[in-house]
């Protein structure tokens, strides 16, 4: 999934992304899909 979004990994540690997604999934009990990931990344910027 993340490899299909190379422009998002520039300057971002993939392990950190995976960890954040796991935290979000455990906190909100939801499955993160690519559209949600894009929304989250845009919200952070």
From the structure above, extract its key features:
globular; mainly alpha; 45 residues; 0% strand; 58% helix
Question: What can you see in these coordinates?
Answer:
- There is one protein chain.
- The protein is an all-alpha fold and 45 residues long.
- The mean pLDDT is 70.
- The protein is built from two helices and no strands.
- 58% of the residues lie in helices and 0% in strands.
Percent of sequence in beta strands: under 5%
* Overall morphology: globular
Number of domains: 1
Rg estimate, integer Å: 10 Å
- Average pLDDT, rounded to a whole number, is 70
Assembly annotation: single chain
Q: Gap between N and C termini, in Å? A: 20 Å
Task: Name the poorly predicted regions.
Answer: none
Number of strands: 0
In terms of structural class, how would the helical and strand content be classed?
Answer: mainly alpha
């Amino acid at each position: 999934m993340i490899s299909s979004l190379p422009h998002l990994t520039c300057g971002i540690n993939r392990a950190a992304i995976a960890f954040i997604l796991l935290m979000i999934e455990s906190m909100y009990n939801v499955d993160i899909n690519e559209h949600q990931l894009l929304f989250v990344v845009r919200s952070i910027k």
